Prior knowledge:
Elements: E1 3-8, H1 12-22, E2 28-34, H2 37-47, E3 51-55, H3 63-72, E4 78-83, H4 88-97, E5 101-104, H5 109-120, H6 131-139, H7 156-166, H8 171-178, H9 182-196, H10 201-210, H11 213-217
Parallel strand pairs: 1-2, 1-3, 3-4, 4-5
Amino acid sequence: MTISVLLADDHEFFRSGFRAALETQPDLQCVADVGDGRAAVDHVLRLAPDVAVLDVRMPVLDGLGAAEMILAGNSATKILLLTTYDDDAYLYRALQAGASGFLLKSMPTEELLGAIRVAARGDALIDPSVTQRLVSRLAAGLAPTPEPPELQRLTARELEILLELARGRSNAEIAAVLFVGEQTVKTHISRVLAKLDLRDRVQAVVYVYEHRLLTRLTSGP
């Protein structure tokens, strides 16, 4: 199955290079490349690509604005944001909006291509150099909130899975920690997301840190 990709970046050199890399992959197809966020929104609405890769800084409409417009329309397109820096507040807003993750442009091309595949299958990816620092730093400034009532919908095992997600562990790592099969982990994650009305793993991580569940429910790392 071919994954359709839209690429939006105002730097033509980067855009053309990344498109060339996409076109070497038999399972990836670049259906359009554009230079501003407004054009990205228009093309996503018209073409409905599986994944849209948006640069954070673009003219007319920036990547965050484009992502918010796309996701507000309940688009099935997964959003990955590209950045050359790690502005905490800006990227945190992107995660809250429902982006599947953000990546640094300095990442190797192979990893960027891999991230598109991860997003397309419904998972989420954030560059590991900024993941927990980003979410924990901002969540630390939030006012204390009562335990969310919807948390009671989770079974004990589902709650364990949620906390392991927040620690940044992959499905395979969670399976090893909890001594269960990887398919069982996937099933539990799907149930957790449905019960908490969360879009994907990234929103699950944001949810845990916003409600300070790691410190509230466990003293572990």
